[in-house]
Design goal:
about 0% strand
């Protein structure tokens, strides 16, 4: 198995996804490049892949939905 390269903003997205990355590493990469840094590993990976594919930062948004409150108010 080849050694994983260091992350580089000029890296090809296919090279990036061909290696295993820890969630903490993905969060660090996202913070460094001003991408959303919260969510699942899949969401973080998606943000980074879009970034590497040249999608503008303004178009890379979190798709997390807000939670609705399920508690009922007491009367």
């Amino acid at each position: 198995m080849p050694n994983r390269p260091q992350f580089d903003s000029k890296m090809n997205s296919e090279v990036f996804i061909s290696f295993y990355w820890y969630k903490t590493e993905l969060q660090q990469i996202c913070r460094e490049y001003k991408l959303p840094s919260y969510g699942t590993k899949a969401e973080l990976t998606d943000y980074i892949v879009k970034f590497l594919d040249g999608i503008p930062l303004s178009n890379i948004k979190s798709v997390r939905k807000t939670r609705r409150s399920t508690s009922k108010k007491l009367q």
